[in-house]
């Protein structure tokens, strides 16, 4: 195994771990519904908002589950495309890792998640940053350049 393939394998393993963590966040989101509702209730400023806490909570949980499910698919698809050496997949992976960091910052600073939700979100963001770092490792340059020079199907 060459250094290039070792660095790429580390990146791919991190991406598969990110997919697993994103999948784990789905049932944890349902488990955190009470904490999410408490956070929404605490920040509600009008009577209308206080009366709609259940609806807002349901929408928030639904959105978080949808984002997690899409994240699982993106982790897996981008891992496959990076393994194939698609140069643009490395860029997209890096941008999405940045979005994961921003999402984690947003979720952590709002205080609506229990400790286990915060831990999983932090791990997802860290995994994205690690995967992006390994994708851009200098030993992978030949892998992405070689495939970029080939005609695409």
Describe this structure in words.
The protein is mostly helical and 153 residues long. It has helices spanning 3-31, 33-43, 47-51, 53-83, 87-110, 115-135, 141-149. The chain has one domain (3-149). The chain is built from seven helices and no strands. Helix 1 runs antiparallel to helix 4 (53-83), helix 2 crosses helix 4 and helix 5 (87-110) packs antiparallel against helix 6. The longest helix is centred in the middle third of the chain and has 31 residues, at 53-83. It is elongated and about 60 Å long. The mean pLDDT is 90.
Q: Can you give keywords for this protein?
A:
153 residues, signal, single chain, membrane, transmembrane, transmembrane helix, mainly alpha
What's the layout of helices and strands?
Blueprint: H1 3-31, H2 33-43, H3 47-51, H4 53-83, H5 87-110, H6 115-135, H7 141-149
Radius of gyration computed on alpha carbons = 19 Å
| Major sheet description | none
Total discrete domains: 1
**Mean of residue pLDDT?**
90
Share of helical residues? over 70%
3D shape: elongated
Beta strand %: under 5%
End-to-end gap? 27 Å
Query: What is the count of β-strands?
Result: 0
Low-confidence stretches: none
Keywords: Membrane, Signal, Transmembrane, Transmembrane helix
Transmembrane segments: 61-81, 88-108, 114-136
Signal peptide: 1-31
């Amino acid at each position: 195994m060459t250094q290039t393939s070792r660095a790429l394998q580390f990146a791919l393993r991190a991406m598969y771990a990110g997919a697993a963590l994103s999948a784990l966040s789905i049932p944890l989101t349902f488990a955190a519904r009470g904490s999410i509702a408490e956070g929404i209730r605490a920040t509600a400023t009008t009577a209308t908002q206080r009366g709609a806490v259940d609806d807002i909570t349901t929408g928030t949980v639904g959105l978080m589950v949808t984002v997690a499910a899409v994240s699982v698919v993106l982790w897996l698809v981008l891992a496959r495309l990076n393994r194939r050496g698609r140069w643009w997949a490395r860029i997209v992976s890096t941008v999405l890792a940045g979005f994961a960091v921003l999402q984690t910052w947003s979720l952590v600073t709002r205080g609506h998640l229990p400790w286990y939700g915060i831990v999983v979100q932090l791990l997802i963001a860290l995994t994205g940053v690690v995967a992006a770092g390994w994708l851009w490792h200098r030993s992978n340059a030949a892998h992405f350049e070689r495939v970029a020079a080939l005609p695409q199907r």
